[in-house]
């Protein structure tokens, strides 16, 4: 490795360590990264600002040092390494405390994780704008994979603020208006759910505007109504001997965006496999 | 029932593979291997078909089942790379690895049959598991090639070997990503979440990220043989994802128990 490349790697490695240090300091001082700050429309605004700002930056300073730094392998690999280490921590330390002071027992809600993701979004945006569109296997798979990772990261991260999840225990006949949320409380739902026939697992969902669906619930076959989906989890018997169905209810307005990301990523990955058959043994890096 | 007949399929497969490897090293012609490797693999395919018919559903739900598919895929991967690049050692190591997994199944206390849980009755079950196991086999071959590269880099053509290892990594990583997406879509239908940070998912992501670090390092122009160490490490992570996560403190309540 050339001495100047070595300095670049060292600098970016230290930069990412500094970013994580700031993240852990914020975590200790203010607690978890509050993703409630990213509820619609703020998440949409944040996404638009990232894209617009980087596009403008690329237009006027695309050949400059800072843009070059944002798209450098040394910075991006250092960020990827930081992300990997945090996922590794979440794979070793039980992730069982949503209010973990250090963030280590709920890494994905922590500041260092959020800051790393934000930086990865910035560098991905910069890399996408920098890439000249070439209609080769290499060029198309690069764009598909990087744009889809951006979309998935953004829609799952910034979109998580809009997602709602509930568990429901429904006996036959009872009309249910409220369900348990994942923070230990109960919320009123904009839909009502009723188990019509326990043996058949037939349920009825009524929504806003008089919409009504009656259908049989099955594992692997959720019932969907707009951005709402109902999943059959199982069944149980209460202390009074009455049977009930256990259902999970999810509201996710970002699902279409996530699935669009999945489709693009799958296509990019398949092209990537084919690329292996035609890839020449060339190096195109600069560091 | 299946366990008692297993030996009559596994042993011929192992013997044919060993015979193929011996002929590759001792003979001058390639055609005995062209017959013996596919013939050995055919025994495994027949056993898988036999299991499938006996059970009435795809034999993919247990550790024994996945080891069986892995043995089949890694032997075929070794054979394909031998046909493409004439690497005898890669064929030999692939066949050896496949045989070891078949032998583990011979002595495994588990079984090859399993009642399907409702969540497994999905369109995604077969493509998700087979694509993953195929990715495991290709990644295993890339790890073997990387170790050979580390040991013999000076005596081999460095650029050629790196190029061939990269090809295996590209295919393996592309398949890992495809398998992960299929798993996510399936998980959404079954559990309501496309990603739950379940230990299996978390470790699959760690494995994938390690391969992505390797790919980015190679694209950055890194030619240093030390980065080849990432591949055996990634393969160990992969094996851990496959079989080791149940021993973790973070693995309590994993939805991927089999």
Oligomer: heterodimer
Number of strands of chain A: 8
Radius of gyration of chain B: 19 Å
The H/E string of chain B reads HHHHHHHH
> How many helices of chain A does DSSP assign?
7
Q: What does the overall shape of chain A look like? A: elongated
The chain pair with the largest interface is: A-B, 51 and 53 residues
Percent in helix of chain B: over 70%
User: What is the typical, i.e. mean, pLDDT of chain B?
Assistant: 87
> Ends of chain A: how far apart?
8 Å
Poorly predicted runs of chain A? 281-287
Q: Tell me what portion of residues of chain A adopts beta-strand conformation.
A: 15-25%
Determine Rg of chain A (CA atoms, Å). Answer: 24 Å
Write down the overall mean pLDDT of chain A: 89
Q: What proportion of the residues of chain A is helical, as a percent range?
A: 40-55%
Order of helices and strands of chain A: HHHHHHEEEEEEEEH
Beta-strand portion of chain B reads under 5%
Number of helices of chain B: 8
Number of strand segments of chain B = 0
Write a concise keyword list for the protein shown above:
heterodimer, A: alpha+beta, eight-stranded antiparallel β-sheet, 48% helix, B: 258 residues, mainly alpha
Question: Could you explain the architecture of this structure?
Answer:
- The complex is a heterodimer of chains A (287) and B (258).
- The longest helix of chain A is centred in the first third of the chain and has 28 residues, at 3-30.
- Chain A is elongated.
- Chain A contains seven helices and eight strands.
- In chain A, strand 6 (223-225) and strand 7 (228-237) form a beta hairpin.
- With 287 residues, chain A is an alpha+beta fold.
- Chain B has 258 residues and is an all-alpha fold.
- Chain B is 74% helix and 0% strand.
- Chain B has eight helices and no strands.
- The relative contact order of chain B is 0.10.
- At the A-B interface, helix 4 and helix 7 of A face helix 6 and helix 7 of B.
Q: What would you say about this model in short?
A:
The complex is a heterodimer of chains A (287) and B (258). By secondary structure, chain A is α+β, with helices and mostly antiparallel strands.
